[in-house]
Predict the 3D structure of the following.
Amino acid sequence: MSYEKLPLEEFYKTIDELKPKFIERLQKAIAIPSVSSDETLRPKVVEMAHFLVDELTTLGFQDIQLKDLGIQPPPVADANLKLPPIVLARFGQDPKKKNVLVYGHYDVQPALKEDGWATEPFTMFHDKENDILFGRGSTDDKGPVMGWLNVVEAHNKLGWELPVNLVCCFEGMEESGSLGLDELVAKEAQQYFKGVDQVTISDNYWLGTTKPVLTYGLRGCNYYQIIVEGPGADLHSGIFGGIIAEPMTDLVKLMSTLVDNKGKILIDGVSDMVAPLTEKEDQLYDAIDFSVEELNAAAGSKTSLHDNKKDILKHRWRFPSLSLHGIEGAFSGAGAKTVIPAKVVGKFSIRTVPNIVSNTLDKLVIDHVTKEFAKLDSVNKFKVELIHDGAYWVSDPFNESFTAASKATQDVWNVVPDFTREGGSIPITLTFEKELGVDVLLLPMGRGDDGAHSINEKLDVPNYINGCKTLGGYLHYYAKA
Ligand SMILES: NCC(=O)N[C@@H](Cc1c[nH]cn1)C(=O)O
Ligand SMILES: [Zn+2]
Ligand SMILES: [Zn+2]
């Protein structure tokens, strides 16, 4: 039967039948600690790429390639550290069908049980009472990546052909700035990616916990570090305290000049670059289904800086934010170690929005920190630098791809999805749009309380399974559009 006439209910039923197999596939993926920011775990990131190759091969994908991206650029501890490969694969090459590129990432954020996880982060735990899968990468982004594979498996089981030619691009450095991917996309635009009609990404989340969304905007992310260096080695604070200049004291002062405790960025010139809010845009936020209570539930606290839905959404989606992430080299364990750290590296990032210019922002940040360090009159050495950046992206959601995704969502969830923007970043999105000259759709699988990047990251089984149905249903509706 032609794919145009296939009854989608059968596909949705087959996804349900394959549920145990799909859960097992995600469990195997979570078991590989593919943390891209931890240089010592780089072999695991590469192992995850090979796991994907094995799965893709078994499912009958063709033209599977591992694209080498060379050595990771500085700043990096190991000057010879290789970047993990990009996994490329196709399913089908029928010239009569549309070509959909699906992107996802197989790397994850760091996770340690002692951070406060209830279970081992890299051993998937299926809470059967609540039907939730816990584990690092469950929602970000191994669940959605497995989702695309699961769609193909369900078609294979039914003996159906896919309604589109699928082109997969899975990377292993998304959580660390997608290093090397811009260049690869540009290089492959007229080769591996030639003829791509649409890019679809499942790597973000619903706004809340009950209503599906389709996403048409992302903030960007510029990530910086401030290095302050003093003594030749860590020192005893009883012997050297009060006698030498302490790097931590300088660093804490510097970091406190970046943002205030109400979230206001204190670096001159940043807010001047933000696009003014129009009345039309202001009204868009009224229709979105969200509440302060949902934010509190997802955050696990009542510590919101804003007391109404509109302000929360604006500050998540269309205003920049600056977050202080941590201090490398500082004492951070339990107990009361009396040490003076010799070298400390403060990490912070700025989520960017239209019309912030990335290079201009870097200059403002560097000038600000340099000026503040001069005020300290310190004898320590200091440096501030960009680690990586990724662009923001906002698109027009009124196209056939969003319509197809909306139809599939209505089939599966019985509700018309909200159209949202997202506070997080997926650095490669704008590059795909520009280099391939096509539309991008963000089609999320997980819920707003999944705890991506946090402890106890999870993916609800209904989201995983219905998410697979939505991804597959979307391909069918898009093929027919
Ligand atoms: N699911 C998308 C995601 O988590 N993206 C990361 C990307 C990033 C940017 N810099 C470091 N990581 C995010 O933090 O938004
Ligand atoms: Zn992600
Ligand atoms: Zn992430």
